[in-house]
Amino acid sequence: MSKVAISHAPIKLSCPRCKTVLRLRRRPGDPGEFDCPDCRERLELVEEGDELRLRVLPPTAETKPKKRKTPVIPSVSFGALSAPPRRWWSRARSTTARWAAEPLVVVWTIAAMAAVGIGVAFWQTRETPVGGAKNAVVEARGVPNGESESRDDVPADQQQRKVIQQPVEAPRSLATLRRPVEAARPPASPPPDPRAMIAGALAMKVLRFEQPTPVPFDLLRFQIEEMAGVAINYDSSAGGEAREQTVTVALDNVTLGEIVAEAARQVGLKPIIDTDGVRLVLEALPTNESAPIGDDVIVGP
After folding, report:
1. Whole-prediction pTM value?
2. What is the pLDDT of residue 51?
């Protein structure tokens, strides 16, 4: 067995102590001995036959690891002043830090604190006098303390006899009991009149409506129908000639209903509010006269 130099090509060997795989490469001037990066053991590369292996060197005085010692802060002098040594709280803090690093110490400390807390709570319950607990129960029930003591002094059979001797109230007759009175129901509200809703839609105010160019009445009817959201239909009595007649309208500060009435008047029709919308009927009066005022007739201008 002899020492060999590490070749230039990297080789892989395992540490005999920690089994860590090491990649070795020779560098100029490197010795055949080195320290394992994991276990810090001194290793030597040796040759046995045609194979290379690592062996652990025995520790020497130079390579033997030394025990760690707590570093002592030196006292540094600055002229006539010197730094004071470590105080007791610094030593206690370092000791506490070492204890906190141990999980077993932390677990036992928590268990001891819990045991102390349970013991203190149990001791306080034992020191509570019986009379104090009794008074607390009496106060919770709302019974005076003197009355409670007097009841405890009386035997149980006398207390039962006193309760039995109390008069029992006779049950009331069912006929004397007041019967529940049924409250009057409010009258059912009538269903909303659809004609009122249609009239409200046609009551929309328009500051100015102007149609100077003659257009067919049916086109103007369709525009107002879209604006009001109310269906405007022709009655069976209205002829087809009125639809194609041209009209011109120029009104200020009017409602949509008044616009419909004015346009219908020019073609010999009058609008009537029905349950399903506005119905255009043939006007019985001449076109140059006003339509009669009725509950379901939209009055013209």
Report:
1. 0.35
2. 78
